[in-house]
Amino acid sequence: MMATDTFSQWLGIEVLEVREGFAKIKMMVRPEMINGVGVTHGGISFSLADSAFAFASNSHGQKTVSIETSINHIKPIFDGDELIAVAEKESTSRSLGQYIARVTRGDELVGLFKGVAFRKDEEWELSDSE
């Protein structure tokens, strides 16, 4: 998935671990990600968590797409911060999956993301996920 995910590549995301129902990724905050009040734009931590959610929800072999997402911005994030997002499956059914992603800076929780994915009736082929 990462090979064709140009947005995650643009963010500078590095995939640390992916296994069924789980993904761990990281990125560095860059100066162009800072908003007008001097902190990281909320869309950056949301996008990092959303990418972790995408990798985790697609790790079951079925293609998935998000249908509902939200984030709580718990602490401000600054230029130069290294962020890690860990997404984990909470539950799945035949057509839906619920995931939680935690965005951290070191040991600090800075964002809490919740996502619901629709599980399509389409499987990933090995060449799709390389």
Structure, explained:
By secondary structure, the protein is of the alpha+beta class. It has one domain: Thiol Ester Dehydrase, Chain A (Roll), CATH 3.10.129. Helices cover 20% and strands 48% of the residues. It has three helices and six strands; from the N terminus they run αββαββββα. It has a six-stranded antiparallel sheet, covered by helices on one side. The longest helix is centred in the middle third of the chain and has 16 residues. The N and C termini lie close together (6 Å).
Q: What number of structural domains do the residues give?
A: 1
Segments where pLDDT lies below 50 for 5+ residues?
Answer: none
CATH architecture, by name, is: Roll
Counted by DSSP, the helix tally is 3
Q: Residue-averaged pLDDT, rounded?
A: 93
Helix coverage percent: 10-25%
Here the CATH topology equals Thiol Ester Dehydrase, Chain A
Structural class category: alpha+beta
CATH class: Alpha Beta
Radius of gyration: 14 Å
| Shape verdict | globular
Brief characterization of the structure:
This protein is an alpha+beta fold and 130 residues long. It is built from three helices and six strands.
Task: List key phrases describing it.
130 residues; alpha+beta; 6 strands; globular
Chart the SSEs and their pairings:
Layout: H1 6-11, E1 14-19, E2 22-28, H2 42-57, E3 62-73, E4 82-92, E5 96-105, E6 108-123, H3 126-129
Antiparallel strand pairs: 1-2, 2-4, 3-6, 4-5, 5-6
